[in-house]
Amino acid sequence: MRVGEHNPCFTAAYFDVTRIIRWNSRNELVIRIGAHPGVLPANVSQGTDFEKNRWTPGIYDDVSLMAMNNPVISTIQVAPQLASSSALVQTQLHNYSIK
């Protein structure tokens, strides 16, 4: 079952796969990366370096499959506060059960 696609380069993509998981069965997750430039939509960036003459590269960072309850921390930033020998922590929460 197709879950989604993500065309932008160098930006994170998140997909909710809970609707397709068979919780009491074996599951297989297949991630297709790259595509021939001739099949990409016009709004997708393309380059002229040697690699992109034949294939648009795919994954640039980690791939994770996470099972969690809501809400979840979607971003976190930790900034050192040198003067007070402490750290300022800012988080952003996301509740995937709210559409």
Tell me briefly what this model is.
With 99 residues, the chain is mainly β.
Cα separation of the termini: 21 Å
Please indicate the percent range of residues in DSSP E strands (runs of 2 or more): 15-25%
Q: Outline the low-pLDDT stretches.
A: none
**Biggest sheet: strands side by side, in what order?**
1-2
Q: Note the run of SSEs as H and E.
A: HEE
CA-based shape: flat
Task: Describe, in plain words, how this protein is organized in 3D.
The protein contains 1 helix and 2 strands, in the order αββ. It is mainly beta and 99 residues long. Strands 1-2 form a two-stranded antiparallel ribbon. A hairpin with a 4-residue loop joins β1 (72-81) and β2. The longest helix has 5 residues, at 50-54. The protein is flat, with a radius of gyration of 19 Å. The model has no long low-confidence stretch (mean pLDDT 80).
What are the salient characteristics of this protein?
single chain; 99 residues; mainly beta; two-stranded antiparallel sheet; 2 strands; 5% helix; flat
